[in-house]
Design goal:
Largest sheet: 4 strands, mixed
Order of helices and strands: EHEEEHHHHHHHHHHHEEHH
Structural class: alpha+beta
Amino acid sequence: MKDPIALSGAPGSPYTRKMLAVLRYRRIPYRFLPASGPALAGLPQPKVSLLPTFYLPDENGELAAVTDSSPIIRRLEREHGGRSLIPDDPALAFLDELIEDYADEWLTKAMFHYRWAYEADIAKSAAILPCWRGFCVPDEELAARGRQFAERQIGRLRYVGSNSVTGPLIEASYQRFLAAFEAHLRHWPYLLGRRPGAGDFAVFGQLTQLAAFDPTPMALTLRAAPRVAAWVGLMEDLSGLEPGEEDWIAPAAPPPTLAPLLAEIGRGYVPVMLANAQAVMAGAAEVEASVEGRPWSQQPFPYQAKCLRWLREAHGKLDVEARGLVDALLAGTGCETLFAPGA
């Protein structure tokens, strides 16, 4: 048996929760280390301090700190057999990758916005999140940590794109997503069938905060989408689920509830990803986009430009049949614009 995988993180990190749930579902042994403390002594430091941090052998067999959840999921697929998150069908696998990126790069805007735009949410996060890095400290020190953390995160809203103009767009997008996902869950337990894909775990990660921690979106989610709120609790540990290959949907005959979810991806995520990639390529100081006919602006985010490039490369590698299925699924949703020539 392989040694348990070591990773560090915190419950307030949606990507930590995403990856812990992945490890549980795939029944991969792991050691979870708090994001600070003596357990991390002697372990390598990541180039960018992000959570979760996995400690995995590099190409030379040396332990390295890695933080990007999507490539880590693909690495785990190669190194650990069974209970795969990636559908065998290439068209469905691509769709799962698109949904995962939407959750990681767009749904996270709602998570960050709600947490740092509302007083009740700021107060809860400032009180609780520092505790997850160590609570055996004097009250004054803990309170100071909370204030410093909140100030730093509120200052980062400009990178997410949350401001007085975009805030209502982010909230409207989240509410539409809840409605579409609630409708889907009336018939299907997971986004692409009766077993979870990487996209489910990415959505789950963001919802651990939106639906189960931050007061404002938590109340909204419970009121508007009780199935979604319940789904988050079940996704935490799917180690007892016994999936079969027949549990995936057929991409040639998708359920009708999938189209509204894809259309929601196309409404906000797509125009902002395209505008961000153009701004990064041009070296612009500001991303300027239109979402629902209203202006969107934020600081450029080079990583998201990479994400779009990876998606386009994956789309380009599909064979003719698979690409035809994907393009048919995306037609009319707005998502097809990501892969249009010259876009």
